[in-house]
Amino acid sequence: MSLIRHIAFLTGLIVFVSDQITKVIVVHWMDLKTVGAIDVLPPILNFRMAWNRGINFGLFANDAEMMRWVLIAIALAISAWVVWWMLKERHSRWAQISAGLLVGGALGNVIDRVLYGAVADFLNMSCCGISNPYAFNIADISIFAGAVGLIAFTGEKTPRDGGGKAE
Predict the structure, then answer these.
(1) pLDDT band at residue 5, thresholds of 50, 70 and 90?
(2) Catalytic residue (one of 31, 39, 112, 121)
(3) Of 67, 99, 63, the residue nearest 80 (C-alpha)
(4) Cα–Cα dist 120/137, whole Å
(5) What secondary structure, in 3-state letters, does the chain show?
(6) Is 140 a catalytic residue?
(7) Model confidence at 3: pLDDT above 70
(8) Which whole number is the average pLDDT over 63-70?
(9) Which residues neighbour 22 within 8 Å (Cβ) at sequence distance 6 or greater?
(10) Is 63 noted as a catalytic residue in this protein?
(11) Average per-residue pLDDT for the chain
(12) According to the model, what pLDDT value does residue 131 have?
């Protein structure tokens, strides 16, 4: 495994572990699952417990038990495909980091769905007079950043002979 692939693996591992540790601390140790809300730096940062049974913003949360397993299967399939794609072709360091962000975040949310039946969202941020009703987590941020990064950093093929921008 080349250094570049180690970067993708390490990025994914850091995201996954960070996501799970923050959920244990906030949801369980700080007992957000019971208290429901903790103001940290209002209104900029608050913890608001939200169990997301669907995808972003709770979309497709109907028939939650079936959807839970469908969403687990989709996240695992996408993660496997991204890993395969990164191993199959040479990609830049930023593309590998993006892949690690996406896969680490997806697996963090998969663990939530397996353990709790829903994704534990708790970060709530508002600013400038705009009140945000939604909550998210580290995995969600990483999935979004990883998807944007894959779009931004994988458009150009890199030669296999070591030339180009791949590192």
Answers:
(1) low
(2) 121
(3) 99
(4) 7
(5) CCHHHHHHHHHHHHHHHHHHHHHHHHHHHCCHHHHCEEEEECCCEEEEEEEECCCHHHCCCCCHHHHHHHHHHHHHHHHHHHHHHHHHCCCCHHHHHHHHHHHHHHHHHHHHHHHHCCEEEEEECCECCECCCCCECHHHHHHHHHHHHHHHHCCCCCCCCCCCCCC
(6) yes
(7) no
(8) 80
(9) 137, 138
(10) no
(11) 88
(12) 87
User: What per-residue confidence (pLDDT) applies to 97?
Assistant: 96
Which residue has 């007079």 as its token pair? 129
For the CA atoms of 135, 136, 141, 144, the dihedral, rounded to the nearest 10 degrees, stands at -80
- Residue 80 tokens read as 């496997």
Residue with tokens 């199959």, as numbered in its chain:
88
The active-site residue, picked from 19, 39, 112, 140, is 140
The more confidently predicted of residues 157 and 70 is 70
pLDDT bucket at 43, cuts 50 / 70 / 90: confident
